[in-house]
Specification:
CATH topology: Rossmann fold
Order of helices and strands: EHEHEHEHEHEEHHEHE
CATH class: Alpha Beta
Strand order of the largest sheet: 3-2-1-4-5-6-9
Radius of gyration: 17 Å
Number of helices: 8
Shape: globular
Number of strands: 9
CATH superfamily: NAD(P)-binding Rossmann-like Domain
Number of domains: 1
Length: 253
Amino acid sequence: MGRVEGKVAIITGAGSGLGAASAKVLAREGATVVVADVNVAGGEAVAKEIGAKGHFLEHDVTREESWERVVADTVDRFGRLDVLVNNAGVVVVATIEDTTLEQLRFVEAVNVEGPFLGCKHAIPKMAESGGGSIVNLSSTASIIGSPGVAAYSASKGAVRSLTQTVAVHCKLRENGVRCNSIHPGGMLTPMTANLKSAIGETSKVALEMMGGMARESIGEADDIANAVLYLASDESRFVNGAMLAVDDAMTVA
């Protein structure tokens, strides 16, 4: 207990799935957690379940003014910002030939512009707090080919590169901010369930679309939440710019 005691964290997309699990784990280990989500009902429910250490803020990660408000409100209320988990994400099931430009822009707005804006506005406040940890949720789709989710794969590749760029930027600035990415494999979450429903669970096409995920073991949200906890804690103080695959060897098999 107490692995992130006294830290203040913002977690996007925390109204369900990996974000909700991460919020609960960080709060259990002593952090004050801002549950940020466009899903008001889900976000409020998670904050209520957490209790005194959970605080909900409605947040659209695609809007810069929303980021400015959430970061400012967090620092004004709690006096600091130590952890940002860029978890909010969306997926569209479509190959490169079938993906529309509108679909691509929708996925990029949430999955890329969200983390970009989060890093941009969190870094100065973290530096003022003496440093901190940014955890970006990427995907194994940024490492292996996943032809059925072309826009998603491209967006998660961008998150991977953004993470490394932010890590080097902060190291050169000597501001005490670290940035790492987590690359989940198949996880038991609402988004994964919807994805499997959209493409089917047993067909050859499903295997191709999911980049093999359908034939791999499925992890649980807490498997990612525990990785978030490690990267948010001071235990990982020398881990910066790393890509942590949590995928039961999917990307190396």
